[in-house]
Amino acid sequence: AIRVTQSPSSFSASTGDRVTITCRASQGVVSQFAWYQQKPGKAPNLLIYAASTLQSGVPTRFSGSGSGTDFTLTISGLQSEDFATYYCQQYYSYPFTFGQGTKVEIK
Amino acid sequence: EVQLVESGGGLVQPGGSLRLSCAASGFTFSDHYMDWVRQAPGKGPEWIGRIRNRANSYTTEYAASVKGRFTVSRDDSENSLHLQMNSLETEDTAVYYCARSTSGKILDYWGQGTLVTVSS
After folding, report:
1. Main-chain dihedrals φ then ψ at residue B54, nearest 5 degrees
2. Which of A3, A12, A60, B33 is the most core-located residue (most Cβ within 10 A)?
3. End-to-end distance of chain B based on CA atoms, in angstroms?
4. What is the pLDDT along chain A (107 residues), one digit of tens a residue?
């Protein structure tokens, strides 16, 4: 199985900050990579797929980049509703695998 | 509006069985692959299985952790997805989500989840 390593596991930030979360896949996944946001008690919500394509309805402050093994999620101008846990996922090969998550907390 | 509603979760003893269901609405269910993903308390999501559509012969894929114990099935006439779970272990305790797959790849809509607790 492809391992997906996500970092950092958590950090604190302030409203308005630009924040970056990274993921590394243990082998190349081309651009078959997604990012999700999850709030407590809720299902993950798809933010970005194909490494950089914004899902319909997702604010444009979210962006994704990367291909191959290294991927980045950037939030440009953190809003109060963005404090949540973020997961990355590869869907290049079975089993689909997720990163361990990054919790973004209020500073 | 796409809706996925899971049901069937609960408390079961180790070695027991449980069948989860997912009722789909708001889209053409028969066109899509459908997946199950679970999330243990305090952990990240774990993809556990998929069933393709009729055009792809309803073939399935499973994670190694559940292969041989869990079975994914679907009823396109009822717009429903099922997960039969046998030989349950304490490690299977999790919230179980059904998810719609688009283009056979991305998991673009998820249900609210149903909690399965395996404990004696």
Report:
1. -60, -40
2. B33
3. 40
4. 999 999 999 999 999 999 999 999 999 999 999 999 999 999 999 999 999 999 999 999 999 999 999 999 999 999 999 999 999 999 999 999 999 999 999 88
DSSP B66-92: TTTTEEEEEETTTTEEEEEE-S--GGG
Closest-CA distance of chain A to residue B10, Å: 17
Please list every residue in chain B whose beta carbon sits closer than 8 Å to the beta carbon of residue A29: none
Q: Under a CB-based contact definition with an 8 Å cutoff, are residues B27 and B21 in contact?
A: no
